Amino acid sequence: MRINLGVYISVKLNKYSGNVHVIKGPYMSIFSLFDEITSAVSDAITDIIGTPDAGIIVEMGADGTPTQAIDKIAEDIILSYLRSAEACGEVISEEAGRCKISDADGIIILDPIDGSYNAIHGIPYYAISAGFMKNGEITAAYISNLGFPEVFTAEKNAGAFLNNKPIRVSVVDTLDAASLSLYGKQHHINSVTEIAGNARRWRHFGASALELAYIGCGRIDGFVDMRGTLRYTDTAAGMLTCEEAGGRVTSATGKTIEHTEDVRQGSTLIATNGFLHDEILRSLERSV
Q: What is the DSSP-derived secondary structure letter of residue 157?
């Protein structure tokens, strides 16, 4: 039997809104707050993970795609916490778009559930992804894997961490030894085939923020997404985590990614451990 979504969200919000600890300050406070948020969101969505209820379409999101129940539940809880804690001035979220939070400084670039498909289908690989932006630059990142209890964090010029332990990219320096995550559409078949045919192994996991963080801790060596659909909300936290762990991130042409704050606009993205980057870019050039 399907849930009454309005009642379900109301019950969860009432449960958690009274438990918010008002934390103000720099990044460690943000990280502590998001630890609480992770616990609240995880508890709130547990009953619907892997069920049709999680995928109920409730509205159209600011990004122009349907907002599903699991995204709505997570986003509403996160925004409630951020407002109560006055954690930032604004949030740019995949579902709600740009919204005012408080008179505090900074903007949080948020994907309430990165990997919604996985969560809806009971695949334990989905995350909360949040990048803290100040003066137009992402200065801190938080990625919490809700399907498996681990948290990636990063601070600009201060490194990247997994469960508070420093992480570093792999040292794999040839494509024939590399494990990659690859994405493309039908008209990208030449590009994807060129890379896949030379890589040791390739796959895709379905949650870009986590995949970028996986490069940071050496679990995979690169990430190639040719679809042109990755939004700032998808990548803000993951890009900083990858770079602070020693990785490199560019567009498919090797240029700096110029993300806009418009959640309807996407881009291509190449992320690697740094050692593989030029070889992958050359492979893409050959496939054109």
A: T
Flag whether pLDDT at 103 surpasses 60. Answer: yes
pLDDT at 286: 76
pTM for the whole thing? 0.91
Beta strands of the chain (E only): which ranges? 57-60, 66-68, 90-93, 97-100, 107-114, 127-134, 137-145, 150-155, 159-162, 165-166, 179-183, 201-203, 222-230, 248-250, 267-272
- Average pLDDT of the residues of the chain: 89
CATH topology of domain 175-287: D-Maltodextrin-Binding Protein; domain 2 (3.40.190)
Q: Which among 178, 234, 186, 232 has a CA at the least distance from the CA of 210?
A: 234
68 has pLDDT over 70: yes
For 5-148, CATH gives 3.30.540.10
